[in-house]
Each structure stands twice: as C-alpha cells, then as structure tokens.
Write a sequence for this structure.
C-alpha cells in the first residue's frame, strides 16, 4: 500500500505505523478534495444557469454543510487522538534500555554529520571544546581512558540489523534536522540540547539494494546521468572469462564497448548506498553538502567493522 502512494522503502520496525498514518491522512485529503471540489463545481454551474442569479453573503440556509464539517472534524480528531498521539507517545516514551541497544552520538555541524561510538567499553570518552580541530571535530580527549576505544566517523553511520538504535542527537552551531527517510526518522538537532532518537532497522543495506535493483539496457551511446550513479550487483564477464564489469562498479563510457563485444545487452543496477542521511533543515549555503550514509549490516559484519575501526585507532 505504501508503494502505491509513492512512499519510500520501509526499513524500520515502526515504519508500518508511520506509513499507516500517512495513508489514512492521504485518504481523508482525497475524500475532502473530491467532495468539496465536486460541490464547488456544482455550485458554479448552478449559479451560472440561474436566471437573475444574485450572490448571497449568507450562503446556504440549511445545516447540511455544518453536519459535513462536523463529520470532518470528528474524523480528524480520531486520526489525531486515536493514531497520531499514541504513535508519538510510543516513539518518545518507549525508548528501550541502552544496554539492549546500539548507542551512538551524532553531532551535526555546518556541513557534516559527526558520529561517535563509545567503543567496546560502552562508555563515551570526554570531549573538550578546546580540542576541536579539523582532525578532531568532536574535541575527543584521547587521554581519557574511556575515550581510547571510541570510534569517530564523519557522514557514515554503521548499524547492526535487528537491534534497537539510540542516537543522542545534538548540534555544534545552528539548527539541523536528521532525516533518515527509509527508517521513517526525522528530528531537529538543536544547539545546547541532546535529543534521543531511536529506531530498529529491520533490513540490511545489501538487501535493500537487491530490492531496488532494476534491469537496464546497455546504452548504445554515452552512459546517462541517471545510470552513472548506480552500481552493479554482480560480475559481468567477457567471452574470455575476464571480468568486464566488476560487482559494485559503475557503468562508464569506456566499459560499454567491452560489454557489447561480450554480448551483454542488459545489466542489473541499484543505488550504491540507498540508506542515506539527509539534513531536512536549511542550515546555510552549504546545506546541500550535508549528505551522509547509513550502512545496516548483519551482526557479524558489524562486529568486523568495529574490529577494523579499533585496529585503525591502535595504529
């Protein structure tokens, strides 16, 4: 149903509840648009065909319109009280224990997302504003024992699938807005405040890629812009068995002749990283640059990623 209304892919546990709310509101808007629009056209035609038609500021002298308005108000109250408020309450109040979740800090700034993991000890290290630099955007004090295993990334959020995520969201400068469309998450990042946001990813980024994969004909000329940003999900080999287009690579103009020579007329392409981080608040002239990525992995892949990050810290 969500796809019918043009909603993006749903990759979080609470996503269906958000989608249901959006769908109900859209159905109400469709009924109102059709009903009031039809009535408006009817009134215009009737007024035009009337002899000696005169406009009357008092309008219709019956209670039908009042009844209709009352029905609309009741429906809106049901949507608000029966659906919206309970859903909002669940998202705000039913935050899981941090011991059962992946906990990260996200600090927005012009124009990047700084992600801070507490490391294997589960304790965030101290930060000091005097230590902030281009190489240390969060001012993390590595002399603090709790900070020695902390992981810091920029515009990259790695998460394990099937486990709740709690994000402590804040901002270094102006108001930003964390927007994770596929996870149905949107929350303003406000300077001086730390706001908790939580969700549970239910699908890995790789699985989302395969869901979004589509077959495309190999272009006869140059590679169109809409295909240049996509990547392959498998290796394509030539007649000699050599890989012509490797898995994870993009289509380029120079590889097209090799594909045609190999008799390959179609390729399967998908977005390289469909799970993106966007800023939904106009935060300055470089607002367009605040683009990050979420990579949802299996538990084993996530552990391997953490181990790799820890190895880089110890070097």
């Amino acid at each position: 149903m969500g796809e019918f209304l043009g909603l993006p892919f749903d990759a979080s546990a609470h996503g269906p509840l958000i989608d249901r709310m959006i769908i109900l509101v859209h159905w109400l808007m469709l009924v109102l648009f059709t009903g009031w629009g039809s009535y408006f056209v009817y009134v215009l035609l009737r007024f035009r065909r009337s002899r000696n038609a005169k406009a009357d500021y008092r309008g219709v002298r019956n209670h039908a319109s009042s009844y209709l308005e009352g029905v609309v108000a009741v429906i809106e109250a049901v949507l608000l009280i029966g659906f919206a408020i309970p859903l909002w309450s669940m998202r705000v109040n039913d935050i899981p224990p941090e011991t059962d979740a992946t906990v990260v800090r996200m600090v927005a700034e012009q124009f990047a997302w700084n992600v801070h993991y507490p490391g294997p000890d589960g304790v965030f290290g101290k930060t000091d504003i005097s230590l902030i630099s281009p190489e240390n955007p969060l001012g993390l004090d590595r002399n603090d024992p709790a900070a020695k295993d902390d992981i810091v990334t920029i515009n990259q959020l790695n998460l394990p699938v099937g486990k709740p995520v709690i994000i402590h969201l804040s901002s270094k400068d102006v108001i930003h807005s964390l927007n994770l469309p596929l996870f149905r998450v949107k929350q303003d990042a406000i300077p001086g405040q730390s706001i908790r946001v939580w969700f549970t990813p239910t699908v890995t980024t790789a699985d989302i890629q395969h869901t979004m994969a589509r077959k495309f004909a190999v272009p006869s000329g140059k590679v169109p812009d809409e295909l240049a940003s996509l990547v392959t999900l498998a290796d394509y080999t030539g007649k000699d068995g050599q890989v012509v287009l490797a898995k994870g690579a993009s289509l380029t103009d120079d590889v097209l002749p090799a594909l045609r020579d190999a008799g390959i007329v179609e390729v399967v392409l998908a977005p390289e990283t469909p799970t993106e981080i966007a800023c939904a608040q106009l935060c300055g002239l470089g607002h367009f640059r605040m683009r990050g990525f979420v990579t949802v992995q299996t538990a084993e892949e996530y552990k391997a990623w953490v181990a790799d990050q820890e190895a880089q810290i110890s070097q």
Remarks:
- Helices lie at 15-49, 64-93, 205-212, 225-228, 256-261, 299-314.
